[in-house]
Design brief:
13% strand; six-stranded parallel β-sheet; single chain; Rossmann fold; alpha/beta; 6 strands
């Protein structure tokens, strides 16, 4: 069992898109996935209702700072990946979600407002480390990266963040209409109509590489859930 949280206190940074790509990719691979949809916009919940859902994927739409640890506790033996999609806000739920995460992904588009939202998440992670002794792994994922952004420019952004001690995923989420269209059509990248949604092959490749890199960063190799099996995250929840 692993908990992955998508966090940036600015809305529109790409959290929901990244969360859905991870969830559907892991579910396609046969893992049991639960998305905890804590975004007030409920885009993933709406997507699930439009699509009729997907195999191995469960969407929980009623999530609060109080209920989040309980939901994970109750479902831990039957879920391999919990993916938490948060609001673009600094609130109690953000602090709770960060504290129970195995890895926090911070989506950043590269604009100043996204950077400030990311900085607030990094500050909270530092506070949890200093005040609670929780050293929570985290990474920035660059989102909506245009083909117009040169490899040299992207490397410069990564170097700047790495110089500040922030891990940046090697795989950015590219700017692709397919990522928007799966929400509109209620589809996944794997069952979408290639006539209605263009460049599905490139979108699938990007999503697969992204999901594989995230999985490699988790504290242990994720396998199928075994009754009674627990990871460090659950020990933190139980001790809280």
């Amino acid at each position: 069992m692993s908990v992955i949280t998508l966090a940036n206190t600015k809305g529109g940074a790409g959290k929901t898109t990244a969360a859905l790509l991870l969830a559907t990719e892991y579910a396609r691979q046969g893992y049991r996935v639960a998305v905890l949809d804590a975004d007030p916009q409920k885009w993933i919940t709406a997507w699930s209702e439009a699509s009729g859902g997907a195999a191995n994927l469960e969407i929980i739409s009623q999530v609060t700072a109080t209920s989040l640890p309980s939901l994970i506790r109750e479902m831990r033996n039957r879920i391999d990946f919990f993916i938490v999609d948060l609001a673009g806000a600094r609130n109690a739920l953000l602090g709770t979600a960060l504290g129970i995460s195995d890895h926090v992904l911070i989506p950043v588009q590269g604009c100043a407002m996204d950077a400030r939202g990311a900085a607030q998440v990094l500050e909270l992670l530092e506070q949890l480390k200093m005040q609670c002794g929780l050293d929570i792994a985290h990474s920035v994922v660059l989102t909506r990266v245009s083909s117009l952004v040169t490899t040299r420019a992207l490397a410069a952004v990564k170097a700047m963040l790495n110089a500040r001690g922030v891990n940046v995923l090697e795989t950015p989420l590219n700017e692709r209409s397919a990522y928007r269209d799966v929400f509109e059509y209620g589809a996944t990248l794997y069952n979408a109509d290639p006539i209605a949604i263009s460049n599905l092959d490139k979108a699938r490749d990007n999503a697969r590489t992204f999901a594989a890199e995230v999985k490699a960063l988790l504290p242990r190799k994720v396998g199928r859930s075994i009754p009674g099996y627990s990871l460090p995250t659950w020990r933190r929840i139980r001790a809280a």
